[in-house]
Each structure stands twice: as C-alpha cells, then as structure tokens.
Amino acid sequence: MTSRIRWGRAIAAALLSELAVIAVLLAVTLTYSLLIAPGRSSAEYQRFGEAAGYYVAPAASGFAIFLSVFWMARKLTADFVVNGTLVGVIAVVLTAGFLFGAKPEDRPMYLASFAIRIVAGYLGGLTTQAAFHRRRAFAVSAVGEPGI
Predict the structure, then answer these.
(1) pLDDT in tens, 48-85
(2) Nearest in space to 94 (alpha carbons), one of 20, 5, 25
(3) Half-sphere exposure (Cβ direction) of 104: Cα atoms closer than 13 Å
(4) Which of 28, 90, 109, 137 gives a 20 to 30 Å CA spacing to 34?
(5) Which long-range contacts (CB under 8 A, 24 or more apart) does 4-12 make?
C-alpha cells in the first residue's frame, strides 16, 4: 500500500507559510517604523516588534497555513483533510522550539498559535476537498451525465 500523503509538498507548504508569517511581521514593523512612527527610539521599536509578534503572528500563521494548503492540495484527488492537517502539524513542529525560549507569560499565546495552525490546516483541507468535489460534479454535469 502506498502512502497518499504528499510529504514533500506538505513540508514545503509549512515552510512557505512560516516564511509568509515572517514577511508579514517584517512588513508590519517596517510600516510602523518608517511610515507611522518614524524617529522613535530603538527601545520603542523593540516593544512594538514584540507586541506585533504577539498579536499579529498567530492570525498571520493561520491565514498562511490555510492558503498554503490550497497550493499543496491542488493536485490531490483524495485525502485533502489529512494532508492539510499535516501542513499545520509540520508548521507547529517547525516553530515549537520558540515555546521554550518564550517568556512564561507569552507561552499561552504560543500554544494558541499552535492550535490555530493545526485548525487552519484542517479547514484548508476541508475547503479544498469541497472545491474539488464541486469542480468534479460540475465537470460531469456539464457533459450531460448526472452530477456526483
């Protein structure tokens, strides 16, 4: 029996989603420091960067995982949810080390962020599965056969 899990694509999707989170955080901090509040002290920028990471990263990671599952699952014909959830789990494994270096008061947000990643992968899998079945039903009904 062969595995229907696309390991290479799942790992690539998780890596791309984490790079997207880094890009979002960079864009937020640069926008703040260059456009919104130029000329502040480096300590103020440091505090803003920490706050941005705390509040922006979890939402950005969920959104990035959800979108990366669409890329990963585009050639799948089955096992969408398993592959999508796997993307979220791999992303958690990639970022789990940060939990141990985090301040104790920040750890609950890390745990919430990990849960968001897994749920986003699951929801991405469900959404791509539904889209696949809609496209397939439309293609079959378009040629005059009953829809699936």
Answers:
(1) 998 998 899 999 999 999 999 999 988 888 899 999 99
(2) 20
(3) 0
(4) 109
(5) 4/78, 4/79, 4/82, 5/79, 5/82, 5/83, 5/86, 6/72, 6/76, 6/83, 9/72, 9/83, 10/72, 10/83, 10/86, 10/87, 10/90, 11/90, 12/72
pLDDT tens digits, 94-103: 999 988 888 8
Could you count the other beta carbons within 10 Å of the beta carbon of residue 28?
19
Q: How remote is the C-alpha of 100 from its chain's centroid?
A: 21
- In tens, the pLDDT along 42-57 reads 899 999 998 998 899 9
- Which token pair is 59? 């939402």
